[in-house]
Specification:
17 helices, 461 residues, Growth Hormone, Chain: A, mainly alpha, disordered C terminus, globular, single chain
Length: 461
């Protein structure tokens, strides 16, 4: 059993390296591609801001229905892996199309680009829901889930920072033009497909751990989401955090180009933050042995608040913003992992309270939140780029001090308010601690919903 846990831990985690490269490219750098590479006019950018924001929100609403499809999938490969493969393949192809210059302008460009983006959202959502909803089926032990989750988050951050650190040097090395970004999207797509093979071929689910459930109806879909109060509180806290996190990270290139006045330092800064996040995730399990999740979340939020305040008020010098960035991203690394664990535990809570697990419907909340967060964050970033004068500026010197203050406020103060609000919701509304989780498992085993073999204990899983 221990060998299987270790195999699943590593193969499940490695599968997300490329996925997060793909997601980082689209969610963080699409606005950079539109404003800095395609050089769209202010009018077209405002149309793109509105269209993409609406499409992202529209697609996010569809994510629970994708979770419904995954939960009702029955195949020899299980219900998760087929969608991981389908979403991964088509998501990669559509990523390349998003970074392909078709020579269109005006309304034709807005419509075609919007269609590609909507289809990309569908494909990536299918892959993402299936991937993360597999996690609760690998073990019911909270500590083992933390080990699997922390390694997966490490791999996810490796993928993210490979793009964050590499995108400017690599695309500039390839010419810094439209073709360079096109080739970069191809590289990321091929890496995505390669890393997905680890999960598709190496992960073994424990399908016999729980009793088989009947097909989920559309009425039960609504019940699973809206009658699971802990899921709803987790979703709201996650959404507020993601809006703040995505807004800050999406401003990175703009900050170093227009405020710091040295775009090349973005890769250095991102590398520092990437190492900080990876170290934070690597030592998370050491902290979790001594402190409760509530204590860890409080500590992480304090780090984030301090980091944001220092970053906002400090001068544009690496000696100040470097340590501030480390505080922010170490805290956010802890929060991201904790959020994943909170969401995983709501699966058992839903089964305990409502009589159904529905892992994929439950985890459809995550891409829903990520898309809402990315939609609002990109809307904030793209609108700020226009109203601060950044989009129209030919050089950093053309942006006024008032424009830079607007950008810094949108990048740092607004996200801080969102992240603190998310913490307060968790602090006063989330109630699944270790004692309650163990009690739920005992109740499920007594009801026959959790299958245990003779002589086996919950911790063995």
């Amino acid at each position: 059993m221990r060998n299987l846990n270790q195999t699943n831990r590593y193969f499940f985690g490695l599968g997300t390296v490329g996925r997060d490269m793909l997601y980082a490219l689209v969610s963080m750098y699409l606005s950079i591609y539109l404003t800095e590479i395609l050089n769209l006019s202010d009018a077209t950018m405002l149309w793109m801001t509105g269209v993409l924001t609406v499409l992202r929100i529209f697609d996010a609403v569809n994510d629970p229905f994708m979770g419904y499809l995954v939960d009702n999938t029955h195949s020899r490969y299980g219900k998760f892996k087929p969608w991981i493969a389908i979403g991964g393949v088509f998501g990669g192809i559509l990523t390349i199309l998003l970074f392909t210059d078709l020579g269109l302008t005006g309304p034709a460009f807005v419509v075609s680009f919007g269609l590609f983006y909507l289809l990309w959202d569908f494909a990536y959502g299918a892959n993402d829901i299936a991937y993360w909803s597999m996690l609760p089926t690998l073990t019911i032990d909270q500590k083992e889930r933390e080990k699997i989750g922390s390694f997966a988050r490490i791999c996810a951050n490796v993928g993210l920072y490979l793009v964050v650190v590499g995108i400017i040097p690599v695309t500039n090395g390839l010419g810094g033009d439209k073709k360079a970004w096109f080739f970069f999207s191809i590289i990321v797509t091929l890496l995505t497909w390669a890393f997905l093979l680890f999960t598709l071929l190496g992960v073994k689910e424990k399908r016999d751990l729980y009793k088989k459930e009947t097909r989920t109806s559309l009425q039960q879909l609504i019940i699973v989401i809206f009658r699971n109060d802990q899921l709803l509180y987790t979703a709201l806290a996650m959404a507020l955090f993601m809006i703040g996190y995505c807004t800050t990270t999406s401003f990175g290139v703009y900050y170093f180009k227009y405020a710091y006045k040295n775009e090349n330092m973005y890769a250095v800064f991102a590398a520092i933050l990437g190492v900080s996040q990876l170290l934070a995730l690597s030592i998370f399990n050491l902290f979790s042995k001594k402190y409760t999740r509530k204590q860890l979340y409080t500590f992480a939020t304090i780090l984030v608040v301090l980091g944001y305040l220092i970053f906002f008020f400090a001068p544009e010098k690496m000696g100040f913003i470097g340590p501030a960035g480390v505080l922010i991203f170490v805290g956010e690394a802890f929060i991201q992992l904790l959020m994943l664990m909170f969401l995983a535990d709501t699966v058992e809570y839903g089964q305990w309270k409502l009589g159904r697990r529905n892992e994929s419907i439950t985890f459809s909340v995550q891409p829903f939140i990520n898309k809402i967060g990315a939609a609002l964050a990109n809307g904030i970033v793209m609108a700020t780029a226009v109203f601060s004068g950044i989009n129209a500026a030919a050089t950093p010197e053309e942006v006024t001090p008032e424009g830079l203050l607007l950008m810094k406020s949108a990048m740092l103060i607004l996200p801080l308010l969102f992240i603190v609000a998310g913490y307060l919701i968790y602090r006063f509304k989330y109630k699944i601690d270790k004692e309650m989780f163990d009690r739920m498992l005992a109740d499920l085993a007594a009801r026959g919903d959790l299958k245990m073999e003779a002589g086996e204990t919950i911790a063995d899983n």
